[in-house]
Amino acid sequence: MYFNSLIITIVCTPNIFNSDCNLDVAAYIDTKLDDPLSRRDDIDYVCEKPYFLVGNFWNVFSGKRQIGKHLGDLYRRFDGPYFGIYIWGKPYLVIRSPDIIKNITIRDFNNFDDRTFACDKKADDMSGNSLFIIRNPDWRNIRNKLSGIFTSGKIKSMYPLMVSNARQMQRYLLKYDKEILDMKEVSGKYMTDLVASCFFGIDSNSFDEQEESVFRIFCRKMLTIDFFQSFRLFSYFFVPKFVYLFKLKLLDTSYFRQIFLETLSEREKSGVKRNDLVDLLIHVRDMFSDENKNGTQFDTTCMVAQAITFFTAGFETTSNLVALALYEMSLHQYWQDKVRKEIFEAFSDDDSHISFEKLQQLKYLDMVLAETLRRYPFGPFLNRNCKADYIIEETGLKIEKGTPILIPIDGLHFDPHYYTDPEKFDPGRFEDGVKGYTNSCVYMPFGSGPRNCIGDRFGQISAKVGLVHFLKKYKVEKCHLTQDPLVLDAKSPFMTPVNGLHLRIETI
Ligand code: HEM
C-alpha cells in the first residue's frame, strides 16, 4: 500500500512537464489507488494502477497496442460512467457514459470547447493557427468564418475535380488485372491527387508511373511516423511543455506552404477561378479583411494554416476509409455485390457518369462506410479540456478546472450494450442510418458537438466517388497476403493497418 502511494507520488511529480496539470484530481485518484478496482460508495469512480512515468500507457509506449484499442481495452475492463488513468504523470478522466459525453461535447460545450493539445504559435505558426489545435476565443472566431466552406453546394462545385481523379485511378488499375495490389497505396494516391487538386489547385499526378510525383513524396514523408515524429506527436498530445520548451513543430509543412502560396499568388495575379478551396479561402480572407479583433484576423498565414490542416486532417483519414471499406468488402463478398448492383443502377443510361445527387442516394454504400467507420474510427479518441470546475450532475463528481477528458471511441463502438455482436462486420445494423447512434453519442467517427469534424461531408463524398469508380470496373478479393484479422499499426496514434492492405483485383 505504502509502495503504491510512493510510486504515485513519484509519478505525479513530473508535473514539471505539465504546468496545467490538475493536482486535485491527481490527489483524488491517489486516494483510490490502494485498491485500484475499488469503488467509492458515493460516486462510481474507479481508476487503473499506474506505473512509473508511463502511467497506464505502457502497452502503448512499448508498441504493443494501438492507443485507441488500448483505451478500448480499459473501457471494457471497467463499468460505471467514467474512470481515471495517468499518462506521463498526468491524470486523465475517461468518460464511458454516453449521457455524460453528450453533456460534455454538446450541452455544456462552452466549458469544454478546447482540445488539450499544445498550441504555440511561436513554435509553429501553422499548427498554432490550425483549426484543429487553436484555442478559444480564436477557435470560435475562425470556425464561424469557415462555417460555409464545406456546404453541399461548395462540395458540388469540386465534384468534377473528384470524378476526374477517380477516373485516373480507374485507368491506372487497368494494368493490374488479376494482380495483387496494396490498396492502401492506391487509395493514398487517389486522395493525394484529390486534395492536391481540390485544396492546392495543382495536378500531382500520383498515378504517373514514369516518375514519382513530388507532391506524393512529400505527403508520404510528412505522414511517416519515425522516432522523431512519434516524439513530436506524443508531445503535442500529452506533454505540451516539451513543445514550448523545445519549440517543436507538429509537422514539417514547408513544402505545402510554398505550394499553396505559389497557387495563391498566381490566382491573385490572374483572377482565374477554379471553385476549389483556394478560391473559397481567398473569399473568406477578403470578406473579413477589415476585422482585426481578438488577434484572430483571417490573414494569409491563417489561411495557409487552414489549407494545410484540411489537407493533413482530410487526406489520410479518407484514404484509410477507402482502403478499409475495400478490405471489408473483399472479406464480405455479399456486401460487395450488393453495393455494386446499387452502383450499376445509379449510373446514367450513357454509362459515363454518376450525378452528385445520385451519389448521395447509395444506401448500401452508406451502410458499408458507416460500419467501416464504426470498426476503424481513424481518430480513436476525442479529447476536451475542462475550462472551469464542473459537476457531473448524474453522480456529483466535480471535474476540476484543467482536467483533460478522453472519450474512448473504440470502447463505445464495440460495446455490446449498443451494438449486437459488435465484432461482426454487419452494415445491416445501419439500415436506418447513423442518426440514432450519433444522437445518443455511441457512434462518433467524426466526433461530437460543435467541435466535430468540419470536413465529414467532404471526406465521405470523396470516399464514395473513389469507391463507386473502383467498384464499377473492378472486383476485390482476399488473397494470401491479406491480413485477416487486420493488424493495426501500434506505433501510429491513428487506426491504420500496418504494412498496407493487399488485395487481389480483377476487372469486371
Ligand atoms: C473519413 C474521414 C474523416 C474522419 C474519420 C475524420 C475524423 C475527425 C475527428 C474524429 C475529429 C475530431 C472531432 C471532435 O473532436 O469532436 C475531426 C476533426 C477535424 N477534421 Fe476530420 N475527419 C475526416 C475527414 C476530414 C476532412 C476531409 C477534413 C477537411 C477537409 C477534415 C478536417 C477536420 C478538422 C479541421 C477538424 C478540427 C475541427 C475543429 O476543431 O473545429 N476531416 N475529424
UniProtKB/TrEMBL annotation:
<dbReference type="InterPro" id="IPR036396">
    <property type="entry name" value="Cyt_P450_sf"/>
</dbReference>
<keyword id="KW-0560">Oxidoreductase</keyword>
<keyword id="KW-0479">Metal-binding</keyword>
<dbReference type="InterPro" id="IPR017972">
    <property type="entry name" value="Cyt_P450_CS"/>
</dbReference>
<dbReference type="GO" id="GO:0005789">
    <property type="term" value="C:endoplasmic reticulum membrane"/>
</dbReference>
<dbReference type="InterPro" id="IPR002401">
    <property type="entry name" value="Cyt_P450_E_grp-I"/>
</dbReference>
<keyword id="KW-0472">Membrane</keyword>
<keyword id="KW-0492">Microsome</keyword>
<dbReference type="Pfam" id="PF00067">
    <property type="entry name" value="p450"/>
</dbReference>
<dbReference type="GO" id="GO:0016705">
    <property type="term" value="F:oxidoreductase activity, acting on paired donors, with incorporation or reduction of molecular oxygen"/>
</dbReference>
<keyword id="KW-0503">Monooxygenase</keyword>
<dbReference type="GO" id="GO:0020037">
    <property type="term" value="F:heme binding"/>
</dbReference>
<dbReference type="GO" id="GO:0004497">
    <property type="term" value="F:monooxygenase activity"/>
</dbReference>
<keyword id="KW-0408">Iron</keyword>
<dbReference type="GO" id="GO:0005506">
    <property type="term" value="F:iron ion binding"/>
</dbReference>
<dbReference type="InterPro" id="IPR001128">
    <property type="entry name" value="Cyt_P450"/>
</dbReference>
<keyword id="KW-0256">Endoplasmic reticulum</keyword>
<dbReference type="InterPro" id="IPR050476">
    <property type="entry name" value="Insect_CytP450_Detox"/>
</dbReference>
<protein>
    <recommendedName>
        <fullName>Cytochrome P450</fullName>
    </recommendedName>
</protein>
<keyword id="KW-0349">Heme</keyword>
<comment type="similarity">
    <text>Belongs to the cytochrome P450 family.</text>
</comment>
<feature type="binding site" description="axial binding residue">
    <location>
        <position position="453"/>
    </location>
    <ligand>
        <name>heme</name>
    </ligand>
</feature>
